[in-house]
């Protein structure tokens, strides 16, 4: 049994590493596309500013998405202590703030720009809307309050630094000292040494719940 678990873990790590390499290649392609797109934009502006009008219209569509309801739902706690959100989690891109039904949020409408989640450590609170976009990409978001022990925060920080598709930040308004969040799932713990922490990372970093598996966790916002 232990051998099978080690094999699965090794395969998962190899898959994540392959995603990182693919992400780097995608970023190089994006830089080329950005240059090409910039040339097109300049040409459009010279012709008659059509692109500007189109961008304004698209911006209105993005903002309008914020008014859509997140949908009703509630958490159901499994035997492993992980809470799963039962309601539909919308995925519209919006430019304004979102009133999430849970804190930290585990999904819903979000900012078009994701929060960098390539083992990133944030020492100040981050915007929910950007973090939710990171969850959509398959990241695990670790959050903590001032009630969490410094040693636990240090342990979790080290874990995140070693784990692609993860991030950590303080979150003053959550109910538990430490929360781990993935798209549609959340776990509360009081200690970084709780075995459920490692299990959560193993299950939800690029897990089956990911709406956009393999999507970038770099090149977003800090």
UniProtKB/TrEMBL annotation:
Segments of this protein annotated with the region Disordered: 1-27, 57-76
Top-rank taxon, per record: Bacteria
Residues annotated as transmembrane: 32-53
UniProt-listed InterPro entries: DUF3105
Keywords: Membrane, Transmembrane, Transmembrane helix
Biased composition (Polar residues): 1-10
Pfam families membership: DUF3105
Compositionally biased spans, kind Basic and acidic residues: 14-26
Protein name: DUF3105 domain-containing protein
